[in-house]
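Note to self: keep these together.
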Amino acid sequence: MNPNAGWLRLSPPRIFVAGFAAIILIGSLLLMLPISNTTGKPLAFIDALFTAASATCVTGLVVKDTGTFFTTFGQVVIAALIQVGGLGFMTMATLIALVFKRRISLRERLILQEAMNQTSVEGIVGLIRKVLLYSLIIEGVCATIFAVRWSFDMPVGRAIYFGIWHAISMFNNAGFDLFGHFRSLTGYVYDPVVNFTAMFLIISGGIGFVVMSDLAEYRKRQRLTLHTKVVLSMTAALIVVGTLVIFVFEFTNPRTLGSLDWGGKLLGSLFQSVTPRTAGANTLDIASLRQATQFFIIILMFIGASPGSTGGGIKTTTFALLVGAVFSMLRGREDIVLFKYRLAQARIYKALTITLLGLLFVIGVTMILSATEDHHFLMILFETVSAFGTVGLSMGLTPDLTVVGKLVITLTMFAGRLGPLTLAYALGPKKGKELYRHPEGKMIIG
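Structure:
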């Protein structure tokens, strides 16, 4: 009997889930080693598991400060987990296969299709090559910019290390930083070089590799796909609206924008509008924001980044479909039309399913944490959505979580990175073809 038969029978979603779980477990064991932290003692398994899950799921929520608690070895382990988790373990496995000139099998292509959220396996290996190339170029260029800028604030060797580390973290929308004491980029709220480089990394990693490929080939093809148009327009709209809302709500808040000049107010509002889209870095103190702003950021975190990207959330295209459905219903139209293209009913059902599953998951986790954690409800909801959207922004709850709370948030980050629909496919029974259809019924809605 073939010992690998059980593994081979696993569906691509189940292999995808199992692969991420294995990476998290390996990362946990490495972070437990005494060499990984500054105390020289083994890290508790629950804290190592939480940190490894946060890194692999590119979230950024931390129970131990990355810059002060972990040694260089531990920080490198975290950066490696971020890179593998952001690009996907199958992408990295494909890189190894391409280096050794090994043929990519059909089953491996199906798993890559699942990992990259594609509709077919056609051209999937070519897309992976582009993913690796774009990632290397963007991270390399931005790491150099960071290193040059930070060389004015710290020794050159440390500046280069910080540049590479933060370029990996921000491109993969992870939200981890090495500045210590949970400060993130609050010391650079006025710095245009750090702000715009970080925002470029976050947006590049968040729009998705399919969109990057489409933009790179625009000069040759002279057109953009519907997917790219929707992603770019929705991303731009969310950034603009987010900037305006944060600017208005925090304008007179003395603990955030109120103490800054006009340049700082605009830059701070813009940066804080970009980062809730699963990045996790911040130049404003999240806990000091007004409740209205915090709730608005929760909405942005729930929407998240775009399909096939390093980010989480229900995705911008899902939100665009929901908005399109509302406008179509209000106008009395049967079809949802975006950029002169009609959307299939199956896409609409999928968008509704993802959104409803995400909402139910967030509600369930929030209720559990409300029972286990003695903190304000908005703080619990914020942390839950941050974990689900793999964002990493925090109002300060994460370091104070109970053991149960850490386990719940770990599972939430895992579910958020893989997506509720992928988890449902992986855990649910194998779907079969319906042999009949029920008669159509009528019911009153609204």
